[in-house]
Specification:
CATH architecture: Orthogonal Bundle
Number of strands: 2
Number of helices: 15
CATH superfamily: Farnesyl Diphosphate Synthase
Strand order of the largest sheet: 1-2
CATH class: Mainly Alpha
Low-confidence stretches: 220-225
Mean pLDDT: 86
Radius of gyration: 20 Å
Number of domains: 1
Order of helices and strands: HHHHHEEHHHHHHHHHH
Length: 324
């Protein structure tokens, strides 16, 4: 059963209200076109899960400070920038049921908007002397770029192994959630060991989050993106990797041929999906996802019980049990 989102937000609802205003201010520009686009971004914002990780991490240790708000804004600015750039890289015209920035304003403007958001985040840290936050988030952006490039490189040969897949998702997805948790913790304590625990906690959740996301590509739930989109983009995800590792040589060659040469044929994509479903790849991936979740919850159990800790537990369950 998926937990209530309201119950997760309860301990930090005041912080989230204040954050919304600060986040809008952080994106403001004197360029009318840019303001029009950032207004569109704010209007179609998601659930702001990453800022919630920031605030809950901070509140588990102490009362959130101005640094916590800077951390949340920085995380969300960088996350938004990467989404805008991702849509250009993936040639995607839809995001969360809305037209993407590149669909409405074309690639050139979308890239520049992503650059602007990235620079605003970096300047926010510098203007407020938040050098520790700048180091945490800059490292995450570097890892995210490396993860995406590693995934693109491996998509050319489709020779990706499980260990490489974990490296890819650790960098491209888990690094930002890890940064959100460690930045939130760093805004409330100077204890580096505690900050590192939160970073590792966030990394485990990020790994589980991405595996859950990859599973949607092989299911029958409407998650706001076409079924089999990862196959069409030649992205080697854990269910597919497992299925190929355990397939007879001739079947493996056939599936790889489809992914390389027939990935735009919906009937052939359906064939790959059915192959994965019958192979045990989905069940295996769920087991791996739950192992990462268990590792995260083990770290969480080390902290003192509180309303914020309970909400953090619920947030962990939400991102791994969600239906879309």
């Amino acid at each position: 059963m998926v937990v209530s989102f309201n119950s997760i937000q309860k301990p930090i609802q005041e912080e989230l209200k204040v954050f919304e205003g600060k986040f809008k201010d952080a994106m403001r520009s004197h360029i009318p076109l840019l303001n029009k686009i950032t207004y569109y971004i704010v209007k179609r914002k998601g659930k702001q899960v990453r800022p919630m990780f920031v605030f809950l991490s901070a509140r588990m240790l102490s009362t959130p400070t101005e640094t916590t708000f800077h951390a949340a804004s920085l995380v969300e600015l960088l996350h938004t920038a990467t989404l805008v750039h991702d849509d250009v890289v993936d040639d995607s015209f839809e995001r969360r049921g809305f037209f993407s920035i590149n669909a409405l304003w074309k690639n050139k403007i979308a890239v520049l908007v992503g650059d602007y958001l990235l620079s605003r985040g970096l300047l926010l840290a510098l203007e407020n002397n938040e050098y520790a936050l700048l180091q945490i988030l800059s490292k995450a952006v570097k890892q995210m770029s490396e993860g995406e490039l590693l995934q693109i490189e491996k998509a050319r040969s489709l020779d990706i192994k499980e260990e490489v897949y974990y490296d890819v998702i650790r960098q491209k997805t888990a690094s930002l959630i890890a940064a959100a948790c460690s930045a939130g913790a760093a805004s409330s304590t100077k204890d580096e060991a505690v900050v590192e625990k939160f970073r590792l906690f966030g990394e485990y959740i990020g790994m589980a989050f991405q595996i859950k996301d990859d599973l949607f590509d092989f299911g029958d739930v409407d998650v706001g993106k076409p079924l089999g989109i990862d196959i069409k983009e030649k992205k080697m995800t854990l269910p597919l990797i497992y299925a190929l590792q355990n397939a007879p040589r001739d079947v493996k060659q056939k599936i790889i041929y489809i992914i390389k040469n027939q990935n735009q044929d919906k009937h052939k994509v359906s064939e790959v999906i059915q192959f994965v479903q019958k192979s045990g790849g989905i069940e295996y991936s769920k087991e791996v996802m739950l192992r990462y979740r268990s590792k995260a919850l083990e770290i969480l159990s080390e902290f003192e019980d509180s309303e914020s800790k309970s909400a953090m537990y619920d947030l962990v369950m939400y991102v791994t049990d969600r239906e879309k």
